[in-house]
Amino acid sequence: MKRVLTALVALVLVGLFGGTLFFLWSKSHKKPVVYKTETPELTDIVKKAVATGAVVPRKGVAVKPQVSGIIETIKVEPGQRVRRGDLLAIIRVIPQTAALAAAESRVNQARLKLDDAERELDRNEKVYKEGILPETALRQAILARDTAKEEMAGAIDTLEVIRKGVPARSREGTNTLVKATIDGTVLDVPVKEGTSVIESNTFNDGTTIATLADMNELIFEGKVDESEVGKLRPGMDIVLTIGALEPARFKAVLEHIAPKGVEENGAIQFKIRAALKETGDALIRANYSANADIVLDQRTKVLSVKESLLTFEGEETFVEVQTSPQTFERRKVRTGLSDGVRIEVMEGLAKDDHVKAGVADPTTAGSRS
Fold it and tell me: Are 190 and 208 within 8 A, CB to CB?
């Protein structure tokens, strides 16, 4: 029994000793690092600036009333097409009590003056016929009568404006009818029936009854960072991506670049405007958010590699090219245009060169050169 126990203990000790030796040996002999490689490719490289903004109509107007009052009827709704002169809404004038009383009082005073002027003229005409009154005095009486008539008409006009919103002698119809001023689409009707509205005047912009716009002529309005605005110029081609209509792309032409930037979130932004060329059958709504890709420079079918494969030292650029399996040499290259991911290689590499591209995945290292 003792011999069996002794043998088992000896066997365990030998196993532990052997395992320790194997572990130390494996730790001292690390597996060689295997690098993967990539070859240059012929690709198109496009350098572009990106602007964020929205698509809006070029021509849009806010229709405002010419009289103050209450919206009695609204004749249109958003999305409806209208022509110039079409009725948008009807306003019911609510006269102010003080203004109405003052206007009525002015009419009464004008009527009294007119009556007095007519009586004075009748008396002067009789005296003139008798040869007692000179012609000059008669003319003054006629002028006084005509002036009183004009004051009477003006007082009545003022009263009618307060009552109905239009002068009595107006031939253009009532100002209580709000009509479209352009051909276009109704984008918004921000008021409801029963809403009080204020006329547009020198001291007040007035209440907007409806917003109209020509949806056949659209533009992109956006902003670009000051680091890129110096590379832009009017006439450059733009590709628009509208979030609501992806993956469709729309062409536009840059028209305007703001001469002054505006600070937003600590950065200076410059406004730009571009005209859409063609929209086809796409239904583009006002204020659709969009991104604009502005092509600054491009290369077609040029030899390129990933920019992450390059090493930069001062003004010089290097790559590591494989000369034999897992053997690399450092080589200087001359680069060109970059899009931020791939970069053009003008000198120093051939299409069949293999460039070091980092450590290979251990699970696939055996299948890579």
Answer: yes
